[in-house]
Amino acid sequence: MVDLIVPQVTEAVAVPSGMSISVFDWAPIIGVPVWIFVDAILLFALVAVIVWWMAKIAKLNAVRGWAESIKMMDVHDVQVWIISRTQKLVIDCMKIEDNVLSYHDTTKIGMWHHNTRESVIRVGGNPAVVVSEDYDQTRDIISEIALTDGADEFNANQTALIEWKKEQNIEGAVIEPINDYDDYEIHGREALQLVYPDGLPLKSFTIFNNLKFLKYFPKGCSHMFFGGELELESRGLHQNENVESFWSKHTMIIIAAIVVFACVGAAWFVPLGG
C-alpha cells in the first residue's frame, strides 16, 4: 500500500501584470502598508503649508484695502491710510476737495486737512496720505520722527545745553523740557532752532511710532470735531442764502396768465361786426 503525501501548498500573492512589489508595500505594523503612512505624512505636510500661508496672508488683512481703494479712485480721490485710536490700520479711498479729505459716505462726518504736499507716502507706486483719528491734519511721518527724536534728545541734555548757552552768551532762548504742544509753541520751537540751526537730524534707520508724537498734538483737534465744525459752517451758509419762495418765483407768470385770460374773455363778449 502506497502512502500518498500531499505537499504543503503556500498561498501565492498574485501581482498584476506590469506591477511589482516594493518596499512601500511592506506591512510591519498591524498589516498596514508603509505607503499609507507615507501618504499620511505628505498630506499632513500639505495641510500644514496651507495653514501656514493662510496665517501669513491673514497678517496682511490690514493692507487689503490698498488694491480695493485703487479700483475705486478717480481724479478727485486719494488713497488714505487711517490709524485708529486702537492702533488699527484701515486703507480707504476718500474725496479731496480744496485740500480737505472726506468720506464718500455722507453719514461719516470725519474730515482731515491736507496741510503740506510733503506729507505723502508712496506704496506700490501709488501716492497716499496718512491720517489718524486723534488729529485733524495729515500726518508727516518724516517730520514727526525728526521732531520726536530731536525733542527727546533736547529734554535729555538739559544740563549740558544750559551750560552751552552760558558759554555762548546766548540771550532770549529758553532751555526747558518740551512736555507737550504748549511747551513746543511757547519756547520749544525757538530752542530747537537754536540747537539745530541746520535742521533736525534724522537717523538713517528708524521705526515710526504713532504714539510718540501724541504729546505734541494740539488738544481737542480730532477729525470728528473738524468735520462737524465744517458741516455746521456749511449749514449756516445755506441758511443765509436768500431762497425764493413759490410766489416770488411765479407771481409774474400768474399775473401774465390772468391778463391773457381776461383779454380772451373780454374779446369773447365783444359783438362781431359792430
Structure in words:
- Strands 1, 2, 3, 4, 5, 6 and 7 form a 7-stranded mixed beta sheet that branches.
- 43% of the residues lie in helices and 14% in strands.
- The protein is an alpha+beta fold and 274 residues long.
- The termini are far apart.
- The chain is built from 7 helices and 7 strands; from the N terminus they run ααβββββββααααα.
- It is flat, with a radius of gyration of 40 Å.
- A hairpin with a 5-residue loop joins β1 (77-83) and β2.
- It folds into 3 domains: 24-58, no CATH class; 65-139, no CATH class; 141-235, no CATH class.
Structure in a nutshell:
By secondary structure, the protein is α+β, with helices and mostly antiparallel strands. The chain is built from 7 helices and 7 strands. Strands 1, 2, 3, 4, 5, 6 and 7 form a 7-stranded mixed β-sheet that branches.
